[in-house]
Amino acid sequence: MTDAPPGPEAAAPTESPRRSHFVDLTPLRVSPPFARLWFGNTLAGIGTFVTNTAVGLHIYDLTRSTFMVSLVAWFSLLPMIVAGLYGGAIADRFDRRTVALSASTVAWASTVVLATIAWLGATHVWMFYVITTVNAVAATIASATRQAITPRLLTRDMLPKAAALLGISAGVMVTVGPGIAGVLVARAGYAWTYTVDVELFFAGFFGLWTLPRIRPESEHAAVGGFRSVVDGLAHLRRAPNVRMSFIVDIIAMTFGQPMVLFPAVGAIVIGGGSVTAGILLASFAVGGIVSSLGSGRVTGLRWQGRAIRDSIVAYGLGVLGFGVVLAVTTLGGFAVTSMDFGDVNRWALAGAALCLAVSGGADNISAIFRQSILQSAVPDHLRGRTQGVFTVVVTGGPRLGQMFAGTLATLTATWVPSVVGGALVVVLVVVTVARVTSFRDYDALHPQP
């Protein structure tokens, strides 16, 4: 198997002459390795969301405690942060194909163990925490490594288009995976549900196995250990544009993360219980899929810093609109407390779902350009470590957002976090980007970290 080239740096994005708004499939045509990686990761990712959903349902069935379910995320948070930082350093030192395959093998093995204990009827909750933490650590390393591989498979002008395709796959994972899990758990049980993930994992292996070797450039190979992690973090201090792409995302996720509110919205505001919560979650994901499907001309934009600013502002406005719908429903006396979906406030549900779809679409557009900056402006020998930090940001930010929204809703009302948080996202992002002109004027024709 031959090595991949050091990394295409010649071709840069230009203002797109593309007439169609439909997603540009060119990356899948020009790079068969990327196409196999994309298809394989999409199928494997569906399996991951099947398992993640099933684990939450399984622990709740065993404990009847939402708090015990939430501990899955909290136990894995610190190990995932460490894995993101060190995993990125490993990806910069060794063959990235080998690193991704090794990490994916560990993740697959943990899923096999999960399926095995389910078949054996084990009821010890601590087993689920241990296994899911191992799975999360391995998946974090594999994800950071896969993202660092993409720029070695495509030319620079293809990276925004590839990011749009990844947005489609992410949306499919979020919508299809939990749905399959719900059906399988109800009809076949947990053991069969985990076993489906075990089988889907092989699609991801195929995508990785057929890649060329992605070896580091010898003159820039990472030294390894803690020193390598420090070098990667030091690079961020000298990379204001990459650093700002992280900061604006943290702002959006910390103050504009309403998903933790969905169960309460379905129980005491709009009504409809878990069905309403599922619709709201799906609305966000569908917005992301639609924005990727219509990204054909968007991905050719040259001024990507402004595109990120504007899309995150739109995200904040969508979250604010969601909060306004909840406020009008609550304060106007239209709240429904029935868990029966037949009694749901349909106008409020439609308005809330529309606002969340706007937010999901805007968040996806932001992700397309943030990923493009990260992959095109960062030198190849630092991409693994930078992607590791990116993984830490996208993992930790939503958890901070859950804490903000959950605490504020407990102290005030269900609608307050989205109204306050959405407004804060808009103001903070506009002010922050205005203070960093290199990011605001970031030019994709001349990418600078």
UniProtKB/TrEMBL annotation:
<feature type="transmembrane region" description="Helical">
    <location>
        <begin position="277"/>
        <end position="300"/>
    </location>
</feature>
<keyword id="KW-0472">Membrane</keyword>
<dbReference type="GO" id="GO:0005886">
    <property type="term" value="C:plasma membrane"/>
</dbReference>
<feature type="transmembrane region" description="Helical">
    <location>
        <begin position="312"/>
        <end position="335"/>
    </location>
</feature>
<keyword id="KW-1003">Cell membrane</keyword>
<feature type="transmembrane region" description="Helical">
    <location>
        <begin position="99"/>
        <end position="120"/>
    </location>
</feature>
<keyword id="KW-1133">Transmembrane helix</keyword>
<dbReference type="InterPro" id="IPR020846">
    <property type="entry name" value="MFS_dom"/>
</dbReference>
<dbReference type="Pfam" id="PF05977">
    <property type="entry name" value="MFS_3"/>
</dbReference>
<keyword id="KW-0812">Transmembrane</keyword>
<feature type="transmembrane region" description="Helical">
    <location>
        <begin position="191"/>
        <end position="211"/>
    </location>
</feature>
<feature type="transmembrane region" description="Helical">
    <location>
        <begin position="246"/>
        <end position="271"/>
    </location>
</feature>
<feature type="transmembrane region" description="Helical">
    <location>
        <begin position="66"/>
        <end position="87"/>
    </location>
</feature>
<protein>
    <submittedName>
        <fullName>MFS transporter</fullName>
    </submittedName>
</protein>
<feature type="transmembrane region" description="Helical">
    <location>
        <begin position="415"/>
        <end position="434"/>
    </location>
</feature>
<feature type="transmembrane region" description="Helical">
    <location>
        <begin position="37"/>
        <end position="60"/>
    </location>
</feature>
<keyword id="KW-0813">Transport</keyword>
<feature type="transmembrane region" description="Helical">
    <location>
        <begin position="164"/>
        <end position="185"/>
    </location>
</feature>
<dbReference type="InterPro" id="IPR036259">
    <property type="entry name" value="MFS_trans_sf"/>
</dbReference>
<dbReference type="GO" id="GO:0022857">
    <property type="term" value="F:transmembrane transporter activity"/>
</dbReference>
<dbReference type="InterPro" id="IPR010290">
    <property type="entry name" value="TM_effector"/>
</dbReference>
<feature type="transmembrane region" description="Helical">
    <location>
        <begin position="126"/>
        <end position="144"/>
    </location>
</feature>
<feature type="domain" description="Major facilitator superfamily (MFS) profile">
    <location>
        <begin position="217"/>
        <end position="449"/>
    </location>
</feature>
